[in-house]
Amino acid sequence: MDKINKDVIIIGAGPIGIACALECKKHNWDYTVIEKGSLTNSLFNYPLNMTFFSTSEKLEINEIPFISNNPKPTRNEALEYYRRVTTSNKLNISLYEKVDTVKQNGNGFTVVTDKKIYQSKKVIIATGFYDIPKLLNVPGENLEKVTHYYKEAHPYTLQNIAVVGASNSSVDAALEIYRKGGNVTMIIRGETIGERVKYWVRPDILNRIEEGSIKAYFNSEIKEIKPDNIIVSTPEGEITLPNDYVIALTGYRPNFEFLKHSGITFSNDVKQIPTYNPETMESNINGLYLAGVVCGGMETHKWFIENSRIHAKIIAKNIQSKI
Ligand SMILES: Cc1cc2nc3c(=O)[nH]c(=O)nc-3n(C[C@H](O)[C@H](O)[C@H](O)COP(=O)(O)OP(=O)(O)OC[C@H]3O[C@@H](n4cnc5c(N)ncnc54)[C@H](O)[C@@H]3O)c2cc1C
């Protein structure tokens, strides 16, 4: 197969990959964004009714206005925004093409996908972290009734639901399912609802727990998932709860194997922060850049759209300086 030559390949068409594509277009570089799923695949897989915690102007890329009807934009508005930015700027994006390997060679990088082989002078990895859930690692986790992605409440009406976790995602899911007639129990490893839960949602969940309409077991963990029940270890001992579905929203992690295979090194601790120079976003490999939330390693809350959209400009400036 002949190699396709490019100046820049961007891996991932999330908000930050799109921001990088806009920079490449501005500089007249021959670039392609390669995306294994749909455009903004992570956002597409978010809960249908989710609302961002950021206001719309903080999600804007390349100063293109993001107009929302709401104080905080919804998933649908964000999909509309990034889609319109992409189509009206005629960005070069190849969807449903997965990058398997990135390998440095004398002239840059060989990028092998499930469809093509590219030769690129520079590569930007903007692969996010939403594809790999952090597992509970308990027996029964592979049952069909267990999911690590929450979409909408309707299927859970009149069912016994265990929501695992105490973050924004878990709290949103618990409240929504409760309001659609599901019987919700939260299983929470820590002793409180997460510190980062949206300030306007926090009183709602605390009040629902206090009045008993949503049950919550703190300092507790699921030990086993069975077809009709779950076994939970609580400070008062093990209990068995009737259960139809488990929604385990315990976070996600970047694809470390892919990054390692590309030659990127990591901090030698539990955070596993990939190596990059914050002034340039260049990794330990010359010409290989990291952009967006992938930069946080296991600290997946550290970077988000609001504070990582700047990576696109930083990278473009560094590439420009080397031409
Ligand atoms: C529920 C929720 C609410 C959030 N709310 C906010 C908010 O209010 N404000 C905010 O700033 N941030 C928010 N965030 C975080 C924000 O959505 C993410 O930070 C954002 O998606 C990061 O963009 P990204 O481009 O770095 O990564 P992503 O959007 O995850 O994009 C990465 C892309 O890379 C693709 N990809 C991965 N591997 C490959 C491969 N091998 N080959 C090809 N393509 C690949 C993926 O399919 C994906 O489309 C929220 C996140 C969640 C989960």
**CATH superfamily placement of the largest domain:** FAD/NAD(P)-binding domain
The CATH top-level class label of the largest domain? Alpha Beta
Q: In DSSP terms, counting alpha (H) and pi (I) runs of 4 or more, how many helices? A: 8
Using the 3D structure, state the CATH architecture of the largest domain. 3-Layer(bba) Sandwich
CATH-derived topology of the largest domain = FAD/NAD(P)-binding domain
Query: Which cofactor or ligand species appear?
Result: flavin-adenine dinucleotide
The biggest beta sheet is recorded as: 7 strands, mixed
- The computed structural class is alpha/beta
Shape: elongated
H/E element string? EHEHHEEEEEEEHEHEEEEEEHEHH
* Measured distance between first and last alpha carbons: 29 Å
What average pLDDT do the residues reach? 97
Keywords: Flavoprotein, Oxidoreductase
Pfam families: Pyr_redox_3 (PF13738)
Organism: Winogradskyella echinorum
Protein name: YpdA family putative bacillithiol disulfide reductase
